[in-house]
């Protein structure tokens, strides 16, 4: 299975007015820009900050991933 080294797991450690502060498993800090005027997004990010869940992030593009790490379910054997 091909792995993408740009997709890492990160948790939200802080929030600014226009940015989300994330920390990767290797303690790298990523600053991700928040979309403007999206209250639902801000609420979800605040919930993730409180819960401490790890989420997929594209390290190179500095964006959250809309899908999970396992994006090709046909290769999975259950």
Overall description:
The protein has 78 residues and is an alpha+beta fold. 17% of the residues lie in helices and 35% in strands. It contains 1 helix and 5 strands, in the order βββαββ. It has one helix at residues 39-51, and strands at residues 7-15, 19-24, 29-33, 54-58, 63-64. The chain has a 5-stranded antiparallel sheet. A hairpin with a 3-residue loop joins strand 1 (7-15) and strand 2. The longest helix has 13 residues, at 39-51.
Mean pLDDT: 85
Please give the alpha-carbon distance between the first and last residues: 16 Å
Q: Output the strand order for the largest sheet.
A: 3-2-1-4-5
How much is the radius of gyration in Å? 14 Å
Q: Main β-sheet: number of strands, strand sense, barrel status?
A: 5 strands, antiparallel
Layout of secondary structure:
Blueprint: E1 7-15, E2 19-24, E3 29-33, H1 39-51, E4 54-58, E5 63-64
List keywords for this structure.
1 helix; alpha+beta; five-stranded antiparallel beta sheet; 78 residues
């Amino acid at each position: 299975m091909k792995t993408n080294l740009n997709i890492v797991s990160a948790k939200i450690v802080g929030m600014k007015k226009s940015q989300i502060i994330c920390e990767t498993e290797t303690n790298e800090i990523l600053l991700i820009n928040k979309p403007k005027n999206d209250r639902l997004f801000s609420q979800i990010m605040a919930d993730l900050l409180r819960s401490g869940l790890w989420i997929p992030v594209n390290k190179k593009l500095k964006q959250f991933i809309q899908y999970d790490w396992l994006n090709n379910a046909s290769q999975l054997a259950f």
